Amino acid sequence: MEILDRVVIGNTLESWLYAVGGAIGAFVLVRGALALVRSRLARIADRTATRVDDLIVAVLQQTKSILLLMVSLAVAGHTLDATPRIDRTLTSIAIVTALAQIGIWTSALFSSWLRSDRERRLERDPATATTLDALNFVGRLLIWSIVLLVAADNLGFDVTAVLAGLGVGGIAVALALQSVLGDLFASLSIVLDKPFVLGDFLIVDEHLGIVEHVGLRTTRIRSLSGEQLVFSNTDLLSARIKNYGRMHERRVAFGFSVTYQTTPAQLRKIPEIVREAIEQQENVRFDRSHFKGFGESALDFESVYYVGEADYNVYMDVQQAINLRIFERFHEESIAIAYPTRTLYVQSTSEFAGVTTDRDDGVGVGHAHDRVASS
């Protein structure tokens, strides 16, 4: 047909049809092959416990049809007669498009691997889960940085000059974003050093709550009263943090006082009563109980024990049971628990000086030794 011999942009219509048909055919063939492989691997992945096939399926699902079509068209364009400039342009388009698809595949592979690993470790190792979240961000940033640099190099840009320019620009950006970068590096410090992880109960100055999220700039804590507390990572690392999530057991020291009317025999029984009350509790280890000293209005005792759990409610249940048992035993032994009292002895000045003062009526005044109690 004569119309097919007509020349358009240096090539006959027949050559154009062959090129476009070849590109579409290659696209359909590659797309179909990928769909077939993905469906079969998905069925295999459902029957196996390995992660490799799951990762391959996740990567293939990120194949972009538009990118495959552009690569097919660019490759088919080389079958046409074109100037060297057009050939270079088509080659650059094919390479950049292929690099973009490779970047998508690599990023998907990295993210899928970290996501599956995070799900496996979240229950038993929250610290690792937090670390993997940060690694996902850093890894994807590195992947796309490499892809962009390689693409720029293939497009004819001087990558060395670009890197040098980025270095100078990076310094200016760093100066302008000091607080943001400080929080970013503080986030990396939290991830790597792990002073706390998701789920830990923290006390930061006068604030307390459970860690919900560790972000690139802020850490979010859910307080006991329900509101969310948001801390800058830099401020959080510079504060004094009490991490009760790392408490393996809780040390409890408590004290009480008895009256001065308590007999020596009763005082000797008190440490044994406390020991008995503590040792009756489950998952509790008795440490000591001592007659600590003489207070202003009472005899002071101090006792120490350890609870094998960090849970605060468990500790309070144990302390309540110990208090009730001690109170019951004191009632049985007639031991009085002290409350704030003060005994005041009033004595005449003359007696204190060792002399007797006579009144005009000739009656000598004796000494006064009155006991006044107040509470």
Explain what you see:
The protein has 375 residues and is an alpha+beta fold. It has four domains: 2-157, no CATH class; 181-246, SH3 type barrels (Roll); 250-332, Alpha-Beta Plaits (2-Layer Sandwich); 342-374, no CATH class. 55% of the residues lie in helices and 19% in strands. It is built from eleven helices and twelve strands. It has helices spanning 13-47, 52-60, 65-77, 84-121, 126-154, 159-176, 178-193, 233-238, 264-279, 312-332, 349-353; strands at 7-8, 11-12, 201-204, 207-214, 218-223, 228-232, 241-243, 250-258, 284-294, 299-307, 342-347, 369-374. The radius of gyration is 41 Å and the shape is elongated.
* Cα-based radius of gyration, to the nearest Å: 41 Å
- For the secondary structure, the number of strands is 12
| Order of the strands making up the biggest sheet | 6-5-4-3-7
Q: How many helix segments?
A: 11
How many independent structural domains? 4
> Secondary-structure element sequence?
EEHHHHHHHEEEEHEEHEEHEHE
Give the integer mean of the pLDDT values. 78
Approximate helicity band? 40-55%
Label the structural class: alpha+beta
Most strands sheet: 5 strands, antiparallel
How much of the sequence lies in strands comes to: 15-25%
Write down the overall geometry.
elongated
Uncertain runs are 356-375
Distance between the termini: 122 Å
